[in-house]
Amino acid sequence: MTIQDAICKSDMSIYRLAKVSKVPYATVNDIVNGKTDIRKCSVETIYRLSQALKVPMEELIESYM
User: What's the whole-model pTM score?
Assistant: First the structure.
């Protein structure tokens, strides 16, 4: 599942995801738009995003591997 799929599934905007996960909006936006590779993000960032989206970390990054 891509991060875009997870966002759509959770019915959350990029801005809301950034606020809930406490990950900077610019970072979330760059990940969603492909400017930043999620594989190069810190484990903490991936963890926060996965918690906010209510999906396992592995599921969030598996499509990028």
Answer: 0.90
